[in-house]
Automatic annotation (TrEMBL):
Domain Cytidyltransferase-like, residue spans: 243-405
UniProt protein name: Cytidyltransferase-like domain-containing protein
GO BP annotation list: NAD+ biosynthetic process via the salvage pathway
Source organism of this protein record: Methanosarcina acetivorans (strain ATCC 35395 / DSM 2834 / JCM 12185 / C2A)
GO cellular component, one term: cytoplasm
Pfam families in the cross-refs: CTP_transf_like
InterPro entries membership: Cyt_trans-like, Rossmann-like_a/b/a_fold
Length: 412
């Protein structure tokens, strides 16, 4: 990312750069909050904006942001939230470009969330810009923490330039120099940090598909396999017998205990399944995916580890289609949801759920958890093995608690 100096009054993206963007095949949906919305004017004011911009949204209030994301973010201005915004924008771009030739390769979502100068702000408040991009096989995010004292107007311009450069890089267009003397000064160094993660086409294809629950009963979910250890041979899907579905954000000691015990009892390696798509959340981006895979790679040399299966099957009814004749490792909270019709939006009755699992020869190995009361249906017990607490050391830890502590440590 270029951070060369420019005169302080040069605060407009060059017109020729705008037209280079419009001449590229890139189609975008923009989601911007907190600052940087001027980029919309830059892209549209010279004409030909429809060649690039499919849609744009500015979810400025917290309520608007919650609705846009389909959830309440942990923080409204953060790298993670920028990535969530980019992912939702990408899904919107796919919908809007549906049916166009090679559209999936050309469309991107861009999310930007900023905390800029405000009236009567408290002393020491950080000013920061996060810009993320989501494409078919790539996730990227850049962050700039502003240290110098500037007007709100100049900070807005800087945010707009950052958004433009993220788009320019993806489009193969030369980036423009940032205004405001970014990167100069001995006392207050303002540096841009970047993260990018790319995936193979089979993994990227999972995001191009609609959520499986919308595909219809005759459609089979898709899957891409990842070998955590290249030295190990990976079983074919129809040979997988022990599946551990989860988000693994991150994988922690309770997950490891469950996987080890299941592998010992069944004499089979465990295959961890992660669905990139979710029922009520944005899909997992590739930076987050790599972090989750890293938490699993720690155990790649262990005998109980098979591999990782990435899917677009958020519901267990769909997972059963992918892994027939398998045993699924689940916790008590998942068990309670699994046999509750509300979990399926009230569209499936319990008898149909049970019948589907019987037809696919699916069994469940259920691990009890502290403070989780299990609701046991006698019909369900016929194909479930309940692991008692005395066989399994549940310390009550959760991935959510681990992430919270990690965020606290970053702030210290």
């Amino acid at each position: 990312m270029m951070v060369d100096n420019l005169a302080a009054d040069k605060y407009s993206v060059p017109v020729e750069s705008i037209f280079q963007i419009h001449e590229s095949p890139c189609k975008i949906v923009l989601a911007i909050t907190g600052g940087g919305a001027e980029i919309l004017g830059e892209l549209l004011r010279h004409g030909s904006g429809s060649a690039t911009v499919l849609d744009a949204v500015v979810p400025y209030s917290m309520e608007a942001m919650d609705r846009f994301l389909g959830r309440k973010p942990e923080k409204y201005c953060s790298e993670k939230t920028a990535r969530l915004m980019a992912m939702v924008a990408y899904q919107r771009a796919l919908d809007l470009s549906k049916g166009e030739e090679s559209a999936a390769h050309d469309v991107v979502g861009i999310g930007a969330t900023c905390k800029l100068k405000a009236a009567n702000e408290r002393k020491g408040r950080k000013h920061v810009v996060h810009v993320a991009i989501q494409a078919a096989c790539k996730t990227g995010v850049i962050t700039l923490e502003l240290a110098a004292d500037r007007t709100r107007e100049k900070e807005e311009k800087i945010a707009a330039f950052l958004i433009f450069n993220v788009l320019a890089r993806h489009s193969g267009v030369p980036e423009v120099d940032l205004p405001g003397r970014i990167g100069t000064g001995d006392e207050r160094k303002e540096e841009i940090t970047e993260k990018y993660e790319s995936v193979s086409e089979p993994v990227g294809n999972l995001l191009k598909q609609k959520i499986c629950s919308q595909k219809g009963p005759d459609k089979t979910p898709d899957m891409a396999r990842i070998d955590l250890n290249e030295g190990k041979s990976s079983a074919e899907p129809d040979k997988v017998r022990l599946v551990f579905p989860g988000s693994f954000d991150p994988c922690h000691r309770n997950h490891v205990f469950m996987a080890k015990l299941a592998s010992e009892k069944h004499g089979e390696p465990v295959h961890f399944e992660i669905s990139l798509t979710n029922v009520d959340k944005p899909p997992i981006d590739f930076i987050s995916l790599n972090q989750r895979l890293d938490s699993l790679r720690k155990y790649r040399d262990e005998a109980f580890v098979g591999g990782v299966c990435l899917t677009n099957a958020p519901l267990f009814l769909q997972k059963a289609d992918l892994f027939p004749n398998s045993t699924f490792i689940i916790g008590a909270d998942t068990f309670n949801r699994l046999f509750d019709a509300k979990y399926y939006g009230g569209k499936v009755d319990i008898s149909a759920i049970l019948r589907h699992f019987r037809e696919k020869n699916i069994r469940f190995m259920v691990f009890q958890r502290k403070s989780v009361e299990m609701s046991v249906n006698p019909e369900v017990l016929k194909f479930c093995e309940i692991v008692p607490m005395d066989e399994y050391e549940d310390d009550g830890i959760s991935s959510t608690e681990i992430r919270r502590k990690q965020e606290e440590n970053k702030g210290n």
